Amino acid sequence: MNLELLFENMKYIREENDLSQDDIAKILNVTQSNYSRWENKSKIIPLKKLNELCNYYGISMDYIVGLNKNRKKLNKNYTLDNKEIGKNIKMIRIKNKINQKELATLLNTTQSVISNYEKGNTLILTSFAIQICLTYKISLDAICNRL
Questions:
Q1: Cα distance between residue 128 and residue 107, in whole Å
Q2: Considering the domain boundaries, does residue 77 fall inside one?
Q3: pTM
Q4: Cα(64)–Cα(2) distance, rounded to whole angstroms?
């Protein structure tokens, strides 16, 4: 699964940039122990923090999660918008002719969670977003309007 690549790439890119976990934790405004959990597979980095990390390194989300091997440098900082991401999730669902309940089943969650994502009430979990990308062959950067 691409979560393994995410964990590995977070560590690899940090070390490649000669940064400590504490350095990155300060950049992301989190504790070192929290960042360590993300990098060491105990927890999955939230999508907003993943976006901040990608902005800092100037790389795509697709690259860090292993959906794309192209490591071209990005010169723009992106901000995530829950409502826009929700619209994108709904578009993907409709394009693939599935209802909210079917998407919920795929992600092992509830229809109400999917509804809240689509309305932009809450930001989708990183693991769910990656699963949607893998299942429907779509870019995480596209879902998050980072293109």
A1: 6
A2: no
A3: 0.93
A4: 9
> Which tens digits make up the pLDDT trace of 75-101?
889 999 999 999 999 999 999 999 999
Digit-coded pLDDT (tens) for 95-125: 999 999 999 999 999 999 999 999 999 999 9
Domain that holds residue 14: 2-64
DSSP string over 48-72: HHHHHHHHHHT--HHHHTTS----P
- Residues 56 and 75: their CA atoms lie apart, in Å, by 10
Q: Are residues 53 and 14 in the same domain?
A: yes
Spell out the residues 6+ positions from residue 63 whose beta carbon is closer than 8 angstroms to its own. Answer: 9, 69, 70, 71
